[in-house]
Amino acid sequence: MVGVARVRAGPFPRALPACFRPSFNQHSRHVATSTTSSVDRVEDRGILPQPTALESANRQDRRRDLRDAKPFSSFLTDTFNRQHDYLRISVTERCNLRCLYCMPEEGIQLSPNRDLLTTAEIHYLSALFVNQGVTKIRLTGGEPTVRKDIVPLMQRIGELRSNGLREIAITTNGISLYRKLDPMVEAGLTGVNISLDTLDPFQFQLMTRRQGFDAVMKSINRIMEMNKAGAGVKLKINCVVMRGLNEQQILDFVDKTRDEDIEVRFIEYMPFDGNKWSKKKMVPYTEMLEMIRTKYPTVERLRGHRNDTSKTYQIPGFAGRVGFITSMTHNFCGTCNRLRITGDGNLKVCLHGNAEVSLRDLLRNDNGGDPMDDEAFEAVRQIELDRRRQTTSFSLNSDEGWLSKERQLLDTIGAAVKRKKEKHAGIGELENMPNRPMILIALTAAIAGDIHTPTPGLTHVQSSGEAWMVDVGSKALTKRVAIACASVNFSNMQPFRAIRENTNKKGDVLGTARIAGIMAAKRTPDLIPLCHPIIISKCDVKVLLIEPGTRNAICDAQEHGSVAIEARVDCVGPTGVEMEALTAALVAALTVYDMCKAADKNMVLDRGMVVYKSGGKSGLFLRSEWVASQGGFEGLKARGLEAPAHKGR
């Protein structure tokens, strides 16, 4: 039967909405475990056991679950062996509040509707992730309840429970939740996080710039009423604590847990573009906990789950709990299992990073770039059905049809997950790192550095496939700047000591590398075949010796030290100078290697990249980590470099 199931199920996109699939007696779940192989496992769900045989059936089910345990998808497993089974999806960029820490004071520019994911696309991507092992999906925004079809969307996602989805949650401000709560619970809603930063109706209006406190409390009370009737919806209240604004209400929130089975979670104030974050406004969780202990000295820590984002406490005798989300002072990156899809279809592997890849563009590629609705997915189903009828034998490794598209999506997802860092930056870097405003986790960030944009054509390749030099004769002369970096990492202490003490037999390593980099920038057209010879107006190469265990903007901390190189090239011309900057940085690195290879043949040349580029038609390019190390946008301006203007978008 396993072979039959493969032939039947194979031609259909695994993540196609369930209503598009034919019915079979068996349900097959396809779990890919690498970018080149996949495993089909068939689950015979059978007939529900009679009550009299329940205990025996449960034992059999447990044995079967152990026997048929499925490997977790390698596409959702990063290089630190973190398995990402929790997906957050932003379903809108709109919001009916204007919270101080979330919405920039100057407002935002809404995206055209066609740039946002359609209901069919959200459903498809949800199914794709569930089929790879995601067990929890949370709908966010903006404010998700302002989406007109939020209930039908939740109902469609609820259908994925038969595929392995266990939890459907929503994060909301609660303003209009009570109107839609009943059908949401019927659709499978299992958890609600309500953002509420004050219990004072007047202060609520000040902090949100809108009225609505009574509506939020109505939603909270409705959830508690439904839970008393057995709904089983996990209720959490999220409170962002800001010094000088609402920290005096911490104990009032704690008191709400005395008789009510809720969890109040206090969140350390986090920096996002436009929220005027400062370290002085942030109240660390240790200070909040001390405030609680002053009144309730018996408060105690509860044992949490591996992937918890909060540290949970309870006061003996209280029905509810108190939690702390400590992203700023005590990160929980080591057990992070969360991925995010933004409203415009970008996969974001870390809330505090701005590295994103577009799933939307890849999904729409074969639809002329147009949004995929139910009709488009139905057309896909018909194509797959027709192809199946015409195919006598079907190979799971075939590159035909939608399965090829799905493999591209999974490869893109897997590559992004593999690039996820061990942990996000600390306070000093986060406050300067460009990132979306919190409200715009649904929109594309302004910084181009790590953000995916539709891939342009290769300018040095003709339609025939032949290489050619681009004609820049008609281009305007403009000021252009490029900065590139590289590093040389040592495997023992000998080269570091020789450079520091200037005892290298070949002479001054850092000075020689700097001169070599400048010379290389001027000779770039002689080395790169299709690179235009241009007049360089400035070339500045910095070569720095980095102490062991020290991290800087260019290289990670190295046990035996390293050399960090930054090359800046300026010109006024018709084409950019990225190649000149890269050549300067890399030749300087090669020079360091050449002068130190007698002492260390295991040196590694690393981090060769462009970190900054301005001028020309394509405009500004920034790499976020480097920008943060320069002191943010203000630091760029201090160096005479162009920086993005802060404005609504």
TrEMBL record:
InterPro entries: Aldolase_TIM, Elp3/MiaA/NifB-like_rSAM, MoaA, MoaA-like, MoaA_NifB_PqqE_Fe-S-bd_CS, MoaA_twitch, MoaC, MoaC_sf. GO terms for biological process: Mo-molybdopterin cofactor biosynthetic process. Keywords: 4Fe-4S, GTP-binding, Iron, Iron-sulfur, Lyase, Metal-binding, Mitochondrion, Molybdenum cofactor biosynthesis, Nucleotide-binding, S-adenosyl-L-methionine. Residues 30-64 are annotated as: Disordered. PROSITE patterns: MOAA_NIFB_PQQE, RADICAL_SAM. In the C-terminal section; belongs to the MoaC family. In the N-terminal section; belongs to the radical SAM superfamily. MoaA family. This is GTP 3',8-cyclase. It comes from Polychaeton citri CBS 116435. The lineage of its organism: Eukaryota, Fungi, Dikarya, Ascomycota, Pezizomycotina.
